[in-house]
Amino acid sequence: MTAAMNVATRLTASDSVEGYVGHSPTKDRGVIVDTGPELSRGRTYVDLWGRAGWEPNCHVAVDVDADAFLELLVERISALG
Prior knowledge:
It contains two helices and six strands; from the N terminus they run αββββββα. The longest helix has 14 residues, at 66-79. Strands 1-4-5 form a three-stranded antiparallel beta sheet. A three-stranded antiparallel beta sheet has the order 2-3-6, with no helix packed on it. The protein has one domain. 22% of the residues lie in helices and 27% in strands. It is an alpha+beta fold. The chain has helices spanning 3-6, 66-79, and strands at 8-10, 20-21, 24-29, 31-34, 44-46, 58-61.
């Protein structure tokens, strides 16, 4: 574990299931966010392959339809006025 991970805050998990976010398939994975004072503050670490053994606490998109995402993003920003 790196020094940055030592000062990271582990997110707490709620009931989670594998599924979809929008049209993107997701998997439950362990995620930590560096909250230390170093240059990596805010960096997100994901145990994408489950090798670190972190308890799953987030839905992580594993395949993204870039065109559909961009269309949704533009639609939502346009709706702000």
